């Protein structure tokens, strides 16, 4: 199945069922075959496609509710080093995720590892709206 057909099929799935399907697809699908067929897209798994669709739906929902993009300053204390990052986002949670991605690129590690470090167990980050 071509990538655009995958995306169209995923768009038909209700929001509540998408997260459950991620786990099911990881078990059922042969990811080696999937990544070989779609390596040129930069998408490494069907989970990436589903995550992108969820993000797109969230942005459309925020736009329809009149939420505007705000500028945030995010302070991250990564193993004793303080990093100050900025992000434009619809919510503080999105700004935090964007900052984790920025920091992961700066440090040369995966965004998942950075987000796990800032899991809320320690007081090691702040997110504030810039006025």
Domain unit count: 2
Order of neighbouring strands in the sheet with most strands: 2-1-3
Taken from the alpha-carbon principal axes, the silhouette is: globular
How would you sum up the major sheet?
A: 3 strands, antiparallel
What's the total helix number? 6
Mean pLDDT: 76
Low-confidence runs (pLDDT<50, min 5 residues)? none
Provide the β-strand percentage band.
Answer: 15-25%
Structural class: alpha+beta
Roughly how many Å is the radius of gyration? 17 Å
Q: What is the N-to-C succession of helices and strands?
A: HHHHEEHHE
Helix share bin? 55-70%
Instruction: Please count the beta strands (DSSP E, at least 2 residues each).
Output: 3
- Distance linking N and C termini: 47 Å
Structure description:
With 131 residues, the chain is an alpha+beta fold. It folds into two domains: 3-64, no CATH class; 70-129. It contains six helices and three strands; from the N terminus they run ααααββααβ. The protein has helices at 3-11, 15-28, 31-38, 46-64, 92-107, 111-117, and strands at 70-78, 81-89, 125-129. A three-stranded antiparallel sheet has the order 2-1-3, covered by helices on one side. A hairpin with a 2-residue loop joins β1 and β2 (81-89). The protein is globular and about 45 Å long.
Map the helices and strands:
Blueprint: H1 3-11, H2 15-28, H3 31-38, H4 46-64, E1 70-78, E2 81-89, H5 92-107, H6 111-117, E3 125-129
Antiparallel strand pairs: 1-2, 1-3
Helix pairs in contact: 2-4, 5-6
């Amino acid at each position: 199945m071509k990538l655009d057909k995958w995306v169209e099929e995923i768009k038909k799935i209700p929001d509540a069922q998408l997260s459950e399907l991620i786990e099911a697809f990881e078990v059922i699908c042969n990811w080696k075959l999937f990544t070989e067929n779609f390596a040129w897209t930069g998408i490494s798994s069907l989970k990436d496609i589903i995550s992108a669709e969820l993000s797109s739906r969230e942005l459309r929902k925020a736009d329809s509710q009149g939420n505007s993009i705000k500028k945030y300053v995010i302070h991250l204390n990564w193993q004793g080093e303080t990093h100050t990052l900025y992000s434009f986002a619809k919510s503080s949670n999105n700004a935090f995720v964007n900052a984790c991605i920025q920091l992961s690129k700066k440090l040369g590690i995966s965004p998942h590892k950075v987000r796990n470090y800032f899991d809320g167990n320690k007081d090691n980050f702040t997110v504030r709206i810039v006025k």
